[in-house]
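Format notes (please read before filing issues)

Several people have asked whether sequences and structure tokens are stored in separate files. They are not. Every record keeps both together, in the order shown below: the sequence lines, then the token lines. Line labels are part of the format and must not be stripped during preprocessing.
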Amino acid sequence: MNTPDETPATDAATDEVSLESLVGDWLTVPDLAERLDLPLSIVRRLIDDREVLAHRIGERKVVAVPAAFLDEEGIIPSLAGTFTVLADGRMNDEEILRWLFTPDDTFPGGSAIGAVHAGFKTEVRRRAMEEAL
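Then the structure lines:
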């Protein structure tokens, strides 16, 4: 417990660690390329085109994508539109990742990303629009 003179650390490294643990499972760009059976250049283009969001993780700050952005068929197509809605509401990529992965029992599946996996794209998109206002 913090005493009144102690404040919790809020530096970028601490925030990054908590985002890493919030998301949990990450795929590096080479791992994502292998899983999708695509060349690295195409995977990098998917990131550049915001079909998936990436973040630098770990001590070496490698670029990685949340594994939850994929299902058995590949990248979940409905995510790109949700990213756009949230970005239009002035959220940066880290804020979007936090919004998607933060536990929220009001979502089916326990979080926005859980709701997407459970087939509730419309509900997630509706709430994303509300966030963007």
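For reference, the curators noted about this record: Residues 1-11 have pLDDT under 50 and may be disordered. Helices lie at 12-23, 29-36, 40-48, 79-88, 93-101, 112-117, 121-132.
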